[in-house]
Structure formats: C-alpha cells, structure tokens
Amino acid sequence: MLLVRSRLVARAVQKQCQKVERRNYVTKVFNTPLSGMEMARCGGIASMMRLPIASSTEGLDACFVGVPIDHGTSNRSGTRFGPREIRTSSVLVREVNVATGATPFQSLMVADVGDVWVNLYNLPDACRSIKEGFAKIVANGCIPLAAGGDHTITYPILQAIADKYGPVGLVHVDAHGDCNDTMLGEKIAHGTPFRRAVEEGLLDTKRVVQIGLRGSGYSVDDHKFQLDNGFRVVPAEQCWHKSLSPLMKEVKEQMGDGPVYVSFDIDALDPAFAPGTGTPEIGGLTSIQGLEVVRGCRGMNVVGADLVEVSPPYDTTGTTALTGANLLFEMLCVLPGVKYN
Amino acid sequence: MLLVRSRLVARAVQKQCQKVERRNYVTKVFNTPLSGMEMARCGGIASMMRLPIASSTEGLDACFVGVPIDHGTSNRSGTRFGPREIRTSSVLVREVNVATGATPFQSLMVADVGDVWVNLYNLPDACRSIKEGFAKIVANGCIPLAAGGDHTITYPILQAIADKYGPVGLVHVDAHGDCNDTMLGEKIAHGTPFRRAVEEGLLDTKRVVQIGLRGSGYSVDDHKFQLDNGFRVVPAEQCWHKSLSPLMKEVKEQMGDGPVYVSFDIDALDPAFAPGTGTPEIGGLTSIQGLEVVRGCRGMNVVGADLVEVSPPYDTTGTTALTGANLLFEMLCVLPGVKYN
Amino acid sequence: MLLVRSRLVARAVQKQCQKVERRNYVTKVFNTPLSGMEMARCGGIASMMRLPIASSTEGLDACFVGVPIDHGTSNRSGTRFGPREIRTSSVLVREVNVATGATPFQSLMVADVGDVWVNLYNLPDACRSIKEGFAKIVANGCIPLAAGGDHTITYPILQAIADKYGPVGLVHVDAHGDCNDTMLGEKIAHGTPFRRAVEEGLLDTKRVVQIGLRGSGYSVDDHKFQLDNGFRVVPAEQCWHKSLSPLMKEVKEQMGDGPVYVSFDIDALDPAFAPGTGTPEIGGLTSIQGLEVVRGCRGMNVVGADLVEVSPPYDTTGTTALTGANLLFEMLCVLPGVKYN
Amino acid sequence: MLLVRSRLVARAVQKQCQKVERRNYVTKVFNTPLSGMEMARCGGIASMMRLPIASSTEGLDACFVGVPIDHGTSNRSGTRFGPREIRTSSVLVREVNVATGATPFQSLMVADVGDVWVNLYNLPDACRSIKEGFAKIVANGCIPLAAGGDHTITYPILQAIADKYGPVGLVHVDAHGDCNDTMLGEKIAHGTPFRRAVEEGLLDTKRVVQIGLRGSGYSVDDHKFQLDNGFRVVPAEQCWHKSLSPLMKEVKEQMGDGPVYVSFDIDALDPAFAPGTGTPEIGGLTSIQGLEVVRGCRGMNVVGADLVEVSPPYDTTGTTALTGANLLFEMLCVLPGVKYN
Amino acid sequence: MLLVRSRLVARAVQKQCQKVERRNYVTKVFNTPLSGMEMARCGGIASMMRLPIASSTEGLDACFVGVPIDHGTSNRSGTRFGPREIRTSSVLVREVNVATGATPFQSLMVADVGDVWVNLYNLPDACRSIKEGFAKIVANGCIPLAAGGDHTITYPILQAIADKYGPVGLVHVDAHGDCNDTMLGEKIAHGTPFRRAVEEGLLDTKRVVQIGLRGSGYSVDDHKFQLDNGFRVVPAEQCWHKSLSPLMKEVKEQMGDGPVYVSFDIDALDPAFAPGTGTPEIGGLTSIQGLEVVRGCRGMNVVGADLVEVSPPYDTTGTTALTGANLLFEMLCVLPGVKYN
Amino acid sequence: MLLVRSRLVARAVQKQCQKVERRNYVTKVFNTPLSGMEMARCGGIASMMRLPIASSTEGLDACFVGVPIDHGTSNRSGTRFGPREIRTSSVLVREVNVATGATPFQSLMVADVGDVWVNLYNLPDACRSIKEGFAKIVANGCIPLAAGGDHTITYPILQAIADKYGPVGLVHVDAHGDCNDTMLGEKIAHGTPFRRAVEEGLLDTKRVVQIGLRGSGYSVDDHKFQLDNGFRVVPAEQCWHKSLSPLMKEVKEQMGDGPVYVSFDIDALDPAFAPGTGTPEIGGLTSIQGLEVVRGCRGMNVVGADLVEVSPPYDTTGTTALTGANLLFEMLCVLPGVKYN
C-alpha cells in the first residue's frame, strides 16, 4: 500500500520524497515546493520551502543546506537553530517571484539537502567539516544556498568555493565588516572570516563590496583592513533614505563576469526588521533595501550564497526567520540559469 | 444608590452605559471616548476606544463591530482574538485627530456594538450570520467599521453592503490580492473573498484598487483575475521609498462619488510594523503609508470599512493591535459628515 | 431596530446589558455568564465571567470590581492591568462549580461593576478613593470581590469593610506577611497593609491567619509583629507535600461566625503556577492548594474578598490571570447564600 | 556522488531517508532515531524523534502521524502547529526508556509518516479525510500515534479504528469530558468527539475511563452522559496529592484484553506543566502523573493513541510541546511487542 | 592576592573598579569601556557601556546615571527597569563612533554613577530626591546623561539644571508634547513636565523645539500651550519620508550658544523601532532619524540629557533598550569637548 | 564631593563599593546585601544579591562568581547569559533565611567577584582559564559559589578544588548523569564533566550521589559508568511524591566529614519550575525538593558549589533565573561557619 497515491495521507511526504530521477525523463521535471493550495501550510515536514529532501546533490543545480552553529558568536547565541527555524518559516514562500518574474523552480533542479555535520564543541573542527561538506556540494557545480549559523561559516564555505572556482568576488551585506584579526585571542570567530579569507587568497579583493556597515567600533579607522585591501565599503549612513538599486548597478559592474559569492548577514537589516540576531545595530537597512540588494545581484555569476546570523530565541514574532527564508528565495531567483517572465 | 453619579466607582461604566437617548436632546450630544485624563487608561471595561457599548445601532451614525473568526486563515491562526485585543489597545486613542483636524466624536454618533455572532466550527455558516448581522447594521444607514477576524469576513460584509448600496468601489490595502478561486478546494477562505465578490456583482470593478500586493506567488500572472476585471493593482514595489498621498489623489478620482468600501488587511504593512498577523510578507508598507492611505480616503463616500488579520498570539509587543486600533480611528475620521478644524 | 432580539449580532452585548430590574419579577431571575455554548468565547466584550456590566450595585448580592493600580509595588510593576487581564481570562469560567456543586449564579445576583477610580500618580489619594468606592459597594450589603492591583488596595478596602462590619477575621494567603512598618520610608505600600489595618483596628487579630509565607527576609523574626498581635502564621514549609483541607478546617474554627475577609495574593502560589506577579518566591503553594484554601472558606461569613498582584506583563502564557479568574470564581462560590447541589 | 556515505554532510538526511526495505534482511534492522551523540540536536530535518520519514506505512509496526487542525477549538486556537512543534521538540528524545527499560526502537519498526491531509476551512471534510487516512494506516495493523491538532481529530480516528477493530476501550486523559451534544449548534467540534463516538458505537463504553476532569461546567451533572453510558469518571480532585499508578492498575483490569485506544489531551496536565493549550484549567495533573498514566497502559492491547491540543503560539518556553513529544514516546513504549530490559 | 593583575578572573571588575585617581597622572588617562575583544560581552557586571562604576562624580566630565521610576506613567508601566536594561544592552556599544568620528572616551572622563535614590511610592518625593541628586551631579560641572524612568524625571532634572545654568534651551524629541496641566487631577506626572518647567522658568522658551509629536489628542489645539510660549513644534508628519539633518541645522541655530538640555523620549520613534514603551504612537520617527537628531546636536552647548520611557517588560526582543543605549552613547558623543577624527 | 554620604544619589554604588577593609575593625563588619527597604529593588547596579563587587577574594570567606559560557551545550544554548540574569533576579533575595534561621551575612564575609575570563570560541581554553581562575579563588580558602554557564564548567572547577582539597565528595543534582565519554567525538562538553573528573581522580567516588536523573537515554544501562565507580544514583522516579529530606539525611552520612562539592544543574527541576534551560526533561523535581536538597547539605563540609544551566533566552518569565538566585543563596546558607538562629 503506497500512501503516496492518496490525497489523504502524508502529502508533504509524497512531494518531499519524490524521486530525484524524475528529472531524467525526456521532458525535464523539476522539484517544486509543495503548494499551500494543495496541502495546508501547517501540514507536513518542514523542509526548506517545502522542497523534496535529497540525500545527495546528484542532479541538483542548486541546493539549500543548513550550517547549525553558534559557537562563533560574540554576544547573543542561538543561531544554531537558524536553519531549522528558517525552514519552518519558509512554508510561506511560493513558487514564483511575482515582483521580478523569476521562475526558479521551472528553471533549476533544487532540493533541501539537510544540514552539514558540525562539531558543536570545537569551532575549528566544525570549520573543517563545513569546508569538506561544501567541497562535495560544489564538486559537480551544484550551487549552495546556505542557511546559518553564525557568520563564521562563511570562512570554510569560501575555502571550498575558492578551491573550485578560484578567488571570488564578494557581495557582503552586514552591519559589521567582520575583518578583525582575532577575537578574545582566537583567529576563528564570527568577526574574522573575511580577514582569514583575504589572508588565504580566497577573495578577488578588488571585487569585494561591503554594504550596511555601521555601529560603534574599536577604532576610528575601523575599516582600514578592508580599504587597504581594495574593498569597496558602503556604510549604512550612505544607504539611508534611498533605494539601493542604483548602488547595485555599480556593484554589478564591479563584479564583472567572474564568480561571485553573496554573504548576507541578517543584522545588515535594522533590528526593526530583523530583531532575532546576536549583535544588532540600530540605523540599518530596511528589508526593502535588502530585497533590492539581492535582486540587484541578477546577472552576476553567483556560485554560492549564504544567509547567516538568524537567532530564533530572539526572534519573538518569527519575522527574522521569515525574512531569512525570503532572502534565500531571492538568492535562488538570481542564480544563473533562472528564467524570467 | 447610583454609583454613576460618583467620581469614585465605576467611571468607565458610567460613560460606557450612558443612554443613547441623550442624543435626542435639542442640542445634540454625542458619545465620546472616556478620556485618559478622567479615568486611568488601565481602568474600566475595554470597549472600542472606551466608547459606550450599545445593544442596537438605533440612532448611531457609525459603529465599531467585531467579527472574531480565524477559520479562514491559511497559515497562522489567532485572528479570532483580533477584536478583543484591538479594543484593549484602543484605550490609547483620544478624541481628536490632531494631524488632520478631524473631530469625529463631535460630528457623529458612534458606539461599540459588540461582536457579531459567529459559528466557529462552520465557516459558511459564520459567513451567513455575518451577512445577516451587517444587513441589520446598515439597514438604516449606520456605517460599520469592522474589526476582524480574518479576511474571509469581507465577503459576507460586502454582500450586506451591496444589498443596501449596490455594487461598491473598493479601496483594498493588502499584501495579497485575495482573488484565488479556491483554497484547498474550498470556495470560502481568507484568500478568496474578492473573487467571490466579483462573481456576485458586489463590486463596481472599475472602481477597485489594490495597494501593497507583494510576496511570492503561485504563478507569474498572479494578478490576472484582477486585471481582467479592471481592478487597479499597485504592487508594494511601486510604493517603496515614497509618500502614498499622490497615489491616493488618483484613487479618489477613480472612486468618484459612488459608495466606497475600505478593506485594510494589516499584512499590507511590513512585518516590522505589524508582526502580529498570519501571512506576513516582507517589503511592505510602513505605518506612515498606511496612515496616508486611510487619510487619503477623506472625501470619498465611504459606506463601510474593515481592518482585518490582526492575530494577537503573534503580536508580542501589542504594536499590531495598536496599529489596528489607530487605523480604525482614522477610518472613522474620513467618514462622510465628520467635521475638520 | 433592536439588535438584542437577534441571534446574529452582538449577543454578548445583549446579555451584558440585560436589565438589573429583571430580578424584581416574581420568579427571581439572576444574571448568568454568557455561555461559551451560546456565543464563541472569543466574542463579545470581556466583562468579568461575561456577566452583565452594572453601573450600580443596587440589587446586587455580590459584585466583581477592579482596582487597577501598581504604584504600591516594590519590584516588578504591571498589576494595574490585572483587572483587565483577569476579565479577559475569565471568559473560560462557566456557570457551575462541578467539583463542589456550588451554583452561585442560581443563588445570588452578581454583576461586574467595572473599576474603582484611582489616582495613578498619588498612592494615598488612590487609597482614599478606593475606600470611598468600597464604602458605597458595601453600604447595602453587596459583597465585593475585588481584582487587584497590588496588595496596597486591601488596606483601604478593609477600612470600608470595617466601617460597615466592625473588625473582621482575615484569611490571608500570601508569600509575604505584608506587615512591614514602612517601605522606603513610606507608610503606604504593598508590603504594609496589614500593619496599618492592625493599627487602625480593622482586624479581629485573633481571627487572622496567614498562609504560605516564605522567602528570605530582613530579620530572623520576620513575623514578630504578626505573632505579637495573635495572628496564626502558617509558613509555606508547613504546607509542603500535603493537602491544605485539614488546615482549613482549623481555620474555619478559628474564624467562627464573625465576618471574614479573604485576601489572596497570587504570589502565595509557586511561580510555576503563577509566574505573572511582581515579587515571586520559590517553594510556594500549588494551585491545587490554592483551591483547597478558598474552598475551605465555605461556611465562613465572608463579607468581602480580593485577589491581588496579578501582573500581566510577566504572565507570558496567561496562566496567572486565568488562575486569578478561577480563584475569584471559587471565592464567589463560598459566599453566604450560595446553594450547593 | 552519494553524500550519505560521508560523515560530513547531511547526516540527518542519511538516516531519515534510509530505506524501509532494510528490515527485509534476515536479521531484522529497525529504524532508530538519529542520535544526539552522532549529529548535533540542532542539525537536520526535524522529523518525529529524528526517525526516518516514510511515504507509506508498509512494513511499519507503528507510526507517528500529524493531524494539523485547530478549527474545532472553542477558545484559543493554534493547535494546527502542534505536529510541527512536537516534531521540533522531539529531537531531545533518545532511544531507550531508562526508567521503564523499554526499548521500542529495538522492538518495532517505526517511522514518521508525515501529516494527514486536512481541509482547514471545512471541519466535517477534514474529519472525513482524517478517517480515510487513518483507515489506510491501520489497514495492515500499523499502530498510529497521532499528534494533534485539536481533540476533534479523535472522532474520525476512532471511526477508522473501530472499523478495523470493532468498539474499543478508551483511556481518556483530559480536563474536559468532551461529551457535549453540540457547540454553538454544531455536532462536530473539540468538545463533542466522545458523544459522537458513543452514538456511533465506536466505544466499548464499559471499558472507558476519563481521568483528570475538572473546571467549571455548564450544569451540576456535567458528567451525566458519561455516567449514563457506563464510563468511569475520575475527576482531577480524586488525583490530587498522590501517585496514579494504583489507579492505573484498576484501569488495566477494566480494559481487559480487548483493543484499547489512548487519547491524551495535554490540558489534562495543569497549566504549570502544559501552558501551551487552548482551554487550560487549573488544578490539573502533574507531568509525573501523566507519565504514570501512560506507563500504566503497559500490558494493554493498545491499537492506537493520540496526544492532542498542544498549541504552540501559547507555549512560550516550549515545555508543552516537549511534554507532548515525551508522552508520545511513552505511548510508543507501551505498545504490544515492545521489549523491556 | 590581587586578582586584578590576572587575565583569568574578574576582568570586568578590574576595569570597573579602576581608580578614578588615574586621571591625575601627568598624562591624562580616561575611563574606557571594557572591550568585547578583551572580555566576552556576556561576562562581567553590567555597568553602563561597561564603564567603571563610580561612587562620586569627582573628577568626572560626564556621567551616566539611572532614574528608575514608573509611577508617572499613564498607560503601560515598567520603565522602572529602564536603567538596568539599558545597562545590560549597552555591552554592545564600543569605544568609538565610527560614523561621526567622535572619540568620547579619549576626550572626557566618564563613569557610571549608579542610580538616584527614588521613593517608589510617592512621586513628588521622588522628584524632590531626583532634583537633589542631580544638583550634586551638576554642582561642579559634570554633565549628566540620565537613563529613565518615565518622563516625569525631566522636571526635577531641569530644576537642578536651571539652578546651575539658568533657563536652558531644550531639544525635546517625543511623540507627545508633555505639556498637560494635570493628569487625573495631579500636577506631577509624565505628561506634564514641560508645563511645570515653563511655569517655573526653567526653560528659555524661545529656544525650545519639540520633534516628532503625533497621535490623537484631547483637543484640536493640542499644542496651544507650547505655541503660546514660543516653542517650535515639529509634528511627526513634517518628518515623514526625509532626513532630519536639515531640520537640525535650523535647530542648532535656534539654540545658539546658550546651555541646552536634550530630552529624548523613546516613544518619539515608531513602535516598529521602539516597541518597549508605555504610550506608543504609530507613524513615528525611524531610528535613523533619531540618530540624525542627536548627531545634529553636535556643536550645541549641551549641559545635560536624558533618554526616557524605555519599558523592558514590553521590549520583547531587547531592541528598545539597545536603541536607548546607543542614543545615550550618541548623546555622549556630542558633548562639548569631545574630539572628532 | 563624596556622593556616598548622601541618601540621594547612587546608594547602590555606595554599598557595593564599600571597602573590604571594613572587616579589619575590632568588631567584624560583614558585607550585607543592599536592602530593598533602603533602595528600590529596581535601582542600582545588579551585583549578585546586591552585594559589594570585589576585585579580589582577599578577606572573603565566600564569593559569588560567574562563568558565562554556553559552548558546551548540546541542545539549546544561551547559558552564557546565566550569570548576568541570575544577578538581575537576585535583587529579590534578602538578608536572612527565615525558614532555616541562617544568617549568612552576619557570619561570613561575602562579595560578588564578577566573572571568570572565558574564551568563547575555544572550549578547552575556556576550561583552562576557569581552572586557573578558581585556583586563585580557593587558594586562601575562599569558597566559590559559581553561577553557570553550562555544566562543562564543573570539570575545571573540580580540577581547582581537588588541587586544593584532594578528591571531594559530590552532591550532584541533575536530570542527566553527565558521565558520557564523548559527545560528537569530543571529550569536553556539558555531558562529560563527571567522567573526566573520575578519570582524573578529582572525586572521592564513594562519596558521590546523583539526584534527579531521568529522561530517555542512549542505552538501557545508562548509569553503568556511575554504578561501576560506586556512585549512588537516585533517579527522579525515586523522588516522586515525597519530601527529599529523608534522602538528604542518608546523603549527609554518605558524605561524612570530608570536603564536599555541590553541583546543581537547574534542569534537575521539572520544566514547570525551571523552563529556562537547554535540555529540559519532564517528570523532574519540584523547587520545594530542590530547596530540601540544598538545605539538606547543612552540616557537610562544603568547599565549593555551582548552579548551572540557566538559559535566559528560554526563561520567558524569569522564574528560572530567580530559582537559580535563590538556590545560590541557600547554598551560601549551608556553608561551614554560617550561624543559625
């Protein structure tokens, strides 16, 4: 008796376990999110955007993957539950991007591949396994869309990405530059990933932009490292009271045709829009500006992306996780190969 | 012994039970909200805006009425407590609209008439009783200002309104078009009221505007039904970074002199401003824009209005209910007959 | 057009505004709570136990009345919203006490008379108006069941009660003895009401019992004042791991036939059962023991009662307010004249 | 490239998608929960107890299944998210019941089969599909352990159960008898399932026990229907201050060898232990007593069970969902065939 | 054994108890916040911005001081915990204002001097002691940066300030004008401080600006008192959709060289940005505009400032307290004598 | 100008910075908590129990010290804020233990010494510095009362304790045995401290008792390691429905005269009493039983103690932190040298 043929039981499961092999048919069939019109949104296993759960990236053009850590955080923890909560919130996301016309699920084969294994008690070892995991994901060209986890994860992800693609351009949206040398004496933490990346040659430093930086700092030349290395730094103050679409046109030019990685720290947004995070700073971007930034990446050669620092214990209304889910969807929509109506 | 003559006991009750007959005096005397200067805001029974509670609409020019349902919701429920929580939050609303100069309580006889009877276990039957209840309210010209409840309620309200006034113009503020044909196979749910209304001829479809639509959708032509029927659709993206007052001037022209119904789904606002709702979508209107839209209805021939989808269990700080209460007050301020200073 | 004859609109209002005069009929008709079977619990104005709201105590045997203050609190404030939140939670209370067989609404004429006027910025003046308000309530024998507000309110209530009945016995359930001389130098605060009451001769001190006292204290003979005045003190430690029904039999004997006032501070209960209060102490009574205490007052000559210190901002799940509403119902059930099945 | 062979990526998925066919090996291999020792608890897709997700009950001895509805609730809604939140909380449950020695995952083949399809806008139709879904589950003897959802679900589940097994005995743990005839005029709602079940002959009424009933009621003979039909009714008051193990010995005798269904409404527990529910009543069972009741079912011929009325929006600390997950685990542990050490 | 020389124990204490005398060295050494790079942000006693705690203002150029009251509030209370929660949130603030280049901790000697003694049960007496406390603080020129507490505190602070400096200019950012004559009959409450200040000649009324006023009011000429006295009133509506930097240029001109007091009621900000307050009004300033206002005070002769009305019980995500902490830091940055890079 | 002589400003600071040297007077003067009668509880810097903050343990008989980490947690994190929140909650604790007669602040010199330095990104290094910090604390006999932090901290604390006193007896109250060999492959985590302690000979294993163990486990002989090493294990089931005072008499005998360490994991308590923790298990101890256990340690030779696993982000009402503060106070009360009345 196969329940999967019945309308009555376990529809979520039916869709979520549909065989990846379906795509081998002559007419390519893509995974699609389980529609809220078909199965109540409160029903079914909460996979990312209610997509099928895959145990391999074989045949996938892109995948959602979680990295559930918080031992890189310097203030409020809790980001270890980011992937799970973003999945839960993502049941509200539907198939088509009405605003931009993007139809990612009619263009790419996408699945939720679960979470990378992480050692919760040893941050360097977690970084090692994250790198190893992402190396497998990108090996045959699957584009990872990672849900953090704290921002430390971007360091090992970039290691895997650069191993595959060479130094990449970076669209980094964040309240903080995350280019400290050490934190409490440690080289690996959520405030240091991009200095490590520069040191290891993972970034094409002329093709790096940081958007939304703000907040008090440890010195008056808080962005010295970045500027010395040729990053473009766009403080939040330069973003106030206006659309960021013009900025993104310039950024697109800066990025050129080379591979680009997008790293979006949810604390780039003002805490009014994303309170559920560990190191919030007032005076930040609106979620509208966040959408403009990600939509502005359309046309870039995006080879990977992440959405980090959602901390569910501090996200009392679920808005932050919902925003994370939507931004991941928007990232998917700007991947190479997505068709627009 | 009548406590009502004493300053000491039960002042809230005194005001709230003041006889409707007072208006029959030669000099018309209107109901006024119990002032926070007179009785501590935390004191007294929480009627809408601390108005008298009436058991009939006799002699009323307008009334606040609750419709406490949530069985039309597709994601998070809880809107059944919307009316109660909006009443509780409304104790902060005062008598005069300082910004616009409107003095509704010196112009119209207004009361809180309680909640419509609803069958919580049978949505079509709830719709039937809502229609019947609103038919009585509008029978002699009293203008209902309804507090939802989920958006399903607008369908039976429009039935009652159209029975009285014929097809009406519609100012619909919402994140979603709510023009689906069915949801999970059902014709009646909170995503279908306006398609039902069109089918039944309740709307003057050339005088319909939808403001704030956004979010992912089920198809690329998500607004086809509306456009085919002549609605004006204003997606949220067209509202970003600007005042909506100019838009409302156009809308006023569109509405002309005919009867107009205003339906405001609180999820039109960005979840930063109104997190306590069931199907939030990021990138929405600000509460400032919400005020501009309602204030922009001044001069229209408004015959009814609703504020729906406030879900208190998800409104952790009370901001959403407070916003709902204020928008209902602003709706009252733009009713025909309200004097401005 | 009278809506009150319709099943469809404003049923809550219908019941809640039913004339008090109904009781003058030959066959006495009592106010009854609006049943959840008749009108959805989420519907209607939230009066106490969904009873009619009265603007006078004329004809009432007992009444619920709120005293919304928190300027007597020494730690967390918020009790000013106690009455409102207890009303909201009380919609779950039904007509009959199944466990004890009490049928209060078939025995007594009861209504919600709203809140006493209080000066939020001047505690002594608030006490003055509370006394004055309760004097009117008790003038013709109506028994007040007060919802606080912080425990300061019991002082002026006892003044009004003793003016009418002479010194009363006291069943005082609390984590604290509230017999301090001063707090921060002031004579009136929520930790001093019972010393004031003794000083003014409001209590028949041999007929006073304090149940549930615990927590750290300012001196090793923290209960000296009470013991010196002949109170019976039952620390929480004497209540652990057992039923309090045997204790209440002794208390009933202690109280004799004289008038008795019941004062229940919700912090008598352990914070597991009543977290929403200002000065919680661990190791307290269970709600079962709380029920046993109030039910154990049956047969006493109760002339007034209060339930104080519910602080809604700290009552994240609503359990504390719900407990308050239920204890007020149980107090009603033990009033003289209530029939038992 | 199969990620499933790697320690690094997507271990949750690996286990959760392991083939059901494994059990066909000579040495039977059972599904086991993904251990917290193996994969961080915050990692992986949240299936029930981190078990594999199955799209069919083929080969399963027992299954967890969700029924995500709340349109049968009379007060606070939100139970539609019960299954999802119980799954999330269940990541804390481990493989072995240390207290009782039960080793369910070394005795039975168990999986999470997702959620039954439900029509959120039509309660009778939801009941129809629930019945149909459970009919398939029980068809070949798989024992369903259902996570609600409100208590309405037990009615259609019992229909499916009785179709398979004939009238069953019932261990019903609840604050309410749920034997009303109608609610707001409707026959189907969360307060009526057991009257419906009696009327349709689904219960062996001499083998029914209701444990934990309490709270105010609509009449003094609130349990008349049950007593008239031969149920044993054990009010909460009879449970106070003692172990329920002796009671369960009697219940086991009452149940005899016939098929038994266990229905546990989380509001049987005191709101101190389970605040996240819709119609809480004070003075309830402790979670210890809840464990004693379920553990006391060992040796009965349990053919199905449910855990209902967990309402996540009101479960601010997650304790209620956690309790639900543990009670479902304990139910699994008392199923026929489970080995004890 | 002095732990202070060890890296291992109690670093927070070390810094926080460092002698004020250090500044007497030839090379002036200022107090600096304990860096998050040096000691984990979650560690150590939570003083304001992790500064040393001083028991005197001797040698201080500026100080942070708390005024923990809420008995002046008219709606939601809880501001008594404002100072404590702002301290807790302030651990995120770092040493340098990157956006403006201000280096306050390299320019001024600053410390946290704890809280003023307040009589919680007697508002006029609390005002008396607040005045007395601030008189000592300002006696030798130390500039107080006060954390409220409700807005009543500004009245006695202005008394102390004016005693020292004569009538002062006022930059008042607020949703409300706070110029009522009385509230519930009392002269002292959080809605009256500025009328009292005018009556007592504490303000140079031509040098007063009120920014952000909005919300419903008690009369159409709600700002009559202010306008009659020559205040500049800038309603929120005049602030919508634009930067407030141009406004602040005008304000700076208005203020001239005379002494200026800055009073920032957090409810000036929209509840999206600052939900944790007692009398929120929708349609308010953004936190960006709040920053612009405070930064726009640079160059004024600021002699004192306060940040009031943060109410932690309603600040579910901590954003409001965090905003309060940041605005206090920005106030520090515009004090006379602060060097800019 | 010394503010410390004034009643008006900064009383909290006055007491908290009072010189430790005071004790050198002929008549020994001890530190005492700042009384709530003297300074409003909401006022002043939140040190532990409002004690003076010391920068050294010189002259101290006992001290409170925080260890703010959460990178040893396996499920929900957040314990890094345990020390801070326990301090905040501890303002409710007063000077004398009324129930037991203990007068710790008239017997011992006690202070809050702040927090140990911890490396948030490297758990083994954090353990190293914790050990080093506690070595200094215990060097001259000061007894540390540690506030966690997760349970990992007990491992390095025991290292320091055993270095000073040799192998110690252990009263370990917990839901879990914490004797795993590894977690996710790591030797150091919050589930392994006591196995490490045994391996390193830090415990006198015949003088070890574990109280409150429960919950599902990884194997049927989950306590094998402990039993093999001679621990006494008291599962929660053996604690149900009774006082633990008799048990503690046995434990006292078991402990004899040798040095004893008390380690109290707040999850020993049922989540009804302590929801704010990371790995809650239902069916646990009551807070009454928790008090009985700690009070039962009176007369033992306690040389150190900790209260761990309070996780504020999950402690929505503050009850868990309050319980932690009270248990730390009770631990202080049973230290050698404390006088009883």
Automatic annotation (TrEMBL), chains A, B, C, D, E, F:
In Pfam terms, one family for this protein is Arginase
For this chain's record, the cofactor binding note is: Binds 2 manganese ions per subunit.
Q: Which PROSITE patterns match?
A: ARGINASE_1, ARGINASE_2
Q: Is Transmembrane found in the keyword set?
A: no
> Gene3D superfamilies, from UniProt?
Ureohydrolase domain
Q: Which GO terms describe its molecular function?
A: agmatinase activity; guanidinobutyrase activity; metal ion binding
Essential cofactor(s)? Mn(2+)
Q: Which residues bind Mn(2+)?
A: 151, 174, 176, 178, 265, 267
Q: Where is the signal peptide?
A: none
Which Gene Ontology biological process is one annotated for this entry?
A: putrescine biosynthetic process from arginine, via agmatine
What UniProt keywords are attached to this protein's entry? Hydrolase, Manganese, Metal-binding
Name the domain of life. Answer: Eukaryota
CDD domains (alphabetical): Agmatinase_PAH (cd11592)
Family that this chain belongs to: Belongs to the arginase family. Agmatinase subfamily.
Q: What is this protein called?
A: Agmatinase, mitochondrial
Origin organism is Ciona intestinalis (Transparent sea squirt)
